[in-house]
Amino acid sequence: MTSKIENQTAFVTGSNRGIGRAIAEALLQRGSSKVYAAARDTDSLSDLVARYPDRVVPVPLDVTDQEQVKAAAATAQDASIVINNAGALGSGSLLEGNLAEFRREFEVNYWGPLYVARAFANSLARNGGGTFVTISSVAGLANFPVIPSYSDSKAAAHSLIAGTRFELGRNGTKVIGVYPGPVDTDMTKGMEMEKVSPASVAEHILDGIENGIEDIFPDPFALTYAAPYEAGHKMLERRTVEMLSQPA
Fold first, then answer.
1. 150, 167 in Cβ contact below 8 A?
2. Residue 88: how many CB atoms within 10 A of its CB?
3. Which SMART domains does the annotation name (predicted)?
């Protein structure tokens, strides 16, 4: 199921910086009629609003606040593309790291997208199904020991993608999972590794939306995970869905 960006209305969480900002800008450049740009601090969106005053609607949103998510969804009832981008990254070993940071990762990376899915499910169905995108990570497919709790939270997000794909799909919503490798954002500052730009990742995500790609690996590092994923996780997801779809 393909979905052209032009003339569609989109809702993007965490759109004030990094991948989220790049996605919001790319949507506008591709002709999105309106972008609801969600962020905890809407003042950080002032430059984007100034450039696109008739097409950008700033929305105050902390994705860990379920009531605020519901209010944002009520504001953006006309959205046909919803993109879960807001993310959190903690640090430390599983045995000695800060548990409050670990909980924050799950609040943002798992519970946030779940709140968004529940809040937008009905309006997406009314708008013909639309597209629901959640950004996980290759670290959600195989635990990276240097960021173990983040990997755990992104593994939960990966499982959520499969679950929402099954449930939202019954109402015609296309659910897309995104699995980036290292991206040059504030989140990865201080990590010495080769990184791609947020703009490049955003373009690959929008290409995937327009071409109906279900699982997007938006950079060279991520692409090294695509074939093993297809042979493992994806095969098991399809097998489970087929089993659950059989008549009783």
1. no
2. 20
3. PKS_KR (SM00822)
Element of type H or E holding 246 = none
Q: How far is CA 60 from CA 10, 69, 74, in A?
A: 15, 9, 13
Please give the structure tokens belonging to residue 74: 């009520």
237 token code pair: 């997801």
Residue indicated by tokens 């997000």: 157
Per the CB < 8 A criterion, the answer to whether 70 and 119 are in contact is yes
CATH number at residue 87: 3.40.50.720
pLDDT of residue 54: 96
Domain total in the chain: 1
CB 116 within 8 A of CB 69: yes
CA–CA gap between residue 27 and residue 202 (Å, rounded): 9
pLDDT < 50: residue spans in the chain: none
What's phi and psi for 174, nearest 5 deg? -80, 120
pTM, two decimal places: 0.91
Instruction: Tell me if 223 is assigned to some domain.
Output: yes
- Domain membership of residue 142 (yes or no) is yes
Cβ atoms within 10 A of the Cβ of 128, count? 11
| Other beta carbons within 10 Å of 230 | 13
Supply the residues annotated as catalytic: 150, 154
CB 222 within 8 A of CB 179: yes
Report the C-alpha gap between 194 and 38 in whole angstroms. Answer: 29
Length of the chain: 248
